[in-house]
Amino acid sequence: MRKIRALITVFALASAAAMAGGGFALYGSYADMKDFDDAGYGGGLKLQADLGTPYLGFELRIQGMTGYGGDDPATEDSYLASGEANLRLTLPVGEVLRLYVGAGAGYYVFPEYESKEPVGDSLEPDIDPEDVWGFFAVAGAELMLSESFGLFAEVKYLVAEVEEVDIDDETVEIDEGDFGGFGVNAGILFRF
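The structure corresponding to this sequence follows.
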């Protein structure tokens, strides 16, 4: 039932973006997470809406990321899901190129997973990192190949950190949970 509600919400937001003058983008992601050995990779969807002018806009982002656990048996099955919102300022450069900057906040969810490395008395403990709020800034460019279709690329800097993890329902504080840092998103854009 929750998945159906989420799907209905996404379609409602897409419809609102279309009526407001905006669009949506599908993209791939790469992120260099500070306290993790490997970079994360994934993808997402962003919905855009102009706020009364083509120079000021609002974005909603839904994204998933994995791979940052590398070959470490304690974290290799971990993944991250996020929902983000940001305001952005856009500067048209000619007829087909738009540069933009923005800033916003997001909620970052690390679903529970099973570690393949023993912790204490448990051979395969259930690991549940806390879900946290974070903040980010983006800067990017959109290249419109037609009136309604284009490509975009952006750099993103995220500030977010997990400070507690539940291991078999016991809360433990951690020192190396900073998953912020620089990332890159790139993909295809559809404008209405």
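The mean pLDDT is 88.
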